[in-house]
Specification:
Blueprint (H helix, E strand, L loop, with lengths): L15 H21 L11 H7 L13 H14 L19 H13 L10 H18 L6 E5 L2 H17 L2 H5 L8 E6 L5 H8 L7 E4 L9 H13 L3 E8 L11 H11 L2 E5 L24 E4 L1 H4 L7 E5 L2 H8 L6 E2 L2 E2 L16 H36 L3 E7 L2 E6 L11 H21 L5 E5 L2 E7 L7 H21 L10
Parallel strand pairs: 2-3, 2-4, 4-5, 5-6
Antiparallel strand pairs: 1-7, 6-7, 8-9, 10-11, 11-13, 12-13
Helix pairs in contact: 1-3, 4-13, 5-13, 6-12, 13-15, 14-15
Length: 504
């Protein structure tokens, strides 16, 4: 039985001096790591088996403990030398930003307090900070300040939250009590063919089934076709189905396409459907004047998903769900009346979302919003968009590269050997180019000089660069075409695609 306050006689305890010593040492190591990050490979060269061997992956749980300093030193070496670094200036593959330095420190501070942000009484200051952070993010994207909202793990959970709020708002309370037995007709949810796969997960997990998802064709700009949507809704109603929701996309994952949000909102209001917008990637670009005209209509949505760990550069995890009417969140998630304290209603976030126990995600977002302010974020997001356009210009000028799209901060292109350029568009050539560029992406990622991902556009495999990185510069953008072309030539030679004789 412990007799010393603070658990000083337990294996995990640490006296203040020791904690201070290890903390200072670790912060120094992190600072040096961040300063040298541009000189490191973006990805580690080892595969899964090699990395498991480094940590003794097959070893049993130790019977006795180890020294904390030795453990921290070992963990730092493993992570600094064998990670994929999304803060690297040439990490351009996925929509994950590198963390702000203040955000790193904020997570340390939040962990020290260890607030459980499910109930106000357990996290009074943390809950109020979260509420203010939500209101500020709503302001930033042009959404009503009076909305309901909360911090979640990321885009999937933010979209799930809006999806469930919309399901209950349209179907009524009976669906919570009786589930699908309460339905008089099969529901339908309408999404663009470019919508992220979260919608299938939501339909599956929340009892509707993936068959309720109606994929609407897109126009030449990869935006949801409004006419096709309207015809689908009328056809489904005539068939006895129940249209309940339209999901618009504010920045598709593949190309950054933005759906015609104003028109979609009009369709939903006219027909009584819930309008949810997946703005996990592009939503914060609404803060930049002229970024995309449709983003000015985000305020017309019933719910929005946005991701601070994307274009607010917060450390993972940090997503955010916004719902126009706070009561719609309570109607979807709460199972008891609101609590009141001293005449002022307190927000218990357990009533607003899927989680009960919740970490203090909001601190890093709240501090960053105060550090940069609206103008700071306008400038940084605008710079990312400009860098993507800069890359598009360099790709357009390069004789061996073919530009496909440039929207928001995403640029898509592919490598085309000179010998194949006259035959672009022919079925056989397109198959060979798809194979070449798929292999090229694999080689590019493993080389560690830059990290891109891919998008398939009209059946054509392209390389995809996405800038949500305050460390990236125009110098990095200038270097990307040369790196891609160099590896492309090397690979084309190996595949027999580099000579005129091989092209026939």
């Amino acid at each position: 039985m412990r007799a010393v306050r603070g658990g000083a006689d337990t294996p995990v305890a640490m006296d203040p001096e020791r904690f201070r010593e290890l903390g200072h040492r670790l912060v120094d190591e992190i600072s040096e790591f961040l300063a040298g990050l541009p000189d490191r490979p973006v990805v580690p060269p080892e595969g899964p088996e090699e990395l498991r061997a480094l940590i003794g992956g097959e070893a049993s749980l130790p019977e006795t403990g180890s020294d904390a300093r030795e453990l921290l030193d070992e963990a730092a070496r493993l992570l600094f030398d064998h990670s994929t670094f999304n803060a690297h200036p040439k990490f351009l593959g996925y929509i994950t930003a590198g963390p702000t330095p203040l955000g790193i420190l904020a997570d340390l501070l939040a962990s020290a307090v260890n607030a459980n942000c499910g109930a106000w009484i357990l996290s009074p200051m943390a809950s109020e900070i979260e509420g203010q952070a939500v209101r500020w993010m709503a302001e930033l994207v042009g959404y009503p300040r009076e909305c309901g909202g909360l911090l979640v793990s990321g885009g999937n959970m933010a979209n799930f939250t809006g999806f469930l709020a919309g399901r209950t708002a349209v179907m009524g309370e009976a669906v919570r009590e009786r589930g699908l037995r309460a339905l008089d007709a099969d529901p339908v949810v309408y999404v663009s063919a470019e919508t992220h796969t979260w919608v299938q997960k939501a339909a599956d997990l929340f009892g509707l089934g993936t068959g309720v998802v109606r994929w609407i064709e897109t126009d030449s700009d990869l935006r949801m076709d409004v006419g096709s949507l309207e015809r689908a809704i009328e056809s489904d109603r005539a068939a006895g189905l129940w249209p309940i929701m339209v999901v618009g996309t504010a920045g598709s994952v593949s190309t950054g396409a933005v759906d015609p949000l104003r028109a979609l909102a009009g369709v939903c209001r006219e027909r009584g459907l819930w309008f949810h917008v997946d703005g996990a990637y592009g939503g914060f670009a609404a803060a930049v004047p002229g970024a995309h005209p449709e983003l000015a209509h985000l305020g017309m949505a019933d719910s929005i998903a946005i991701d601070p760990h994307k274009w607010l550069y917060a450390p993972l995890e940090a997503g955010c769900a916004l719902v126009r009417e706070p009561s719609d969140l309570r109607a979807a998630f709460a199972y008891h009346p609101a609590y009141y304290h001293f005449g002022v209603e307190a927000t218990n976030y357990v009533d607003f979302g899927l989680q009960n126990s919740r970490g203090f995600r909001a601190l890093k977002v709240w501090l960053a919003l105060r550090q940069a302010g609206r103008r700071g974020y306008e400038r940084m997001i605008s710079d990312d968009i400009a860098l993507a356009a800069h890359l598009a210009g360099r790709v357009r000028e390069h004789p061996e590269l073919e530009l496909f799209t440039n929207e928001l901060s995403i640029t898509t292109f592919r490598y085309v050997p000179a010998a194949l350029r006259p035959r672009v568009g022919e079925a056989g050539t397109e198959e060979r180019l798809n194979e070449l560029n798929q292999s090229l992406l694999d080689r590019l990622q493993k080389a560690g000089r830059a990290f891109l991902s891919n998008a398939v556009i009209g059946g054509r495999y392209t390389l995809r660069s996405c800038v949500v990185n305050f460390n990236t510069t125009s110098i990095d953008m200038d270097e990307i075409p040369g790196i891609v072309a160099e590896l492309g030539r090397e690979l084309a030679g190996e595949m027999g695609l580099s000579g005129e004789a091989d092209a026939g």
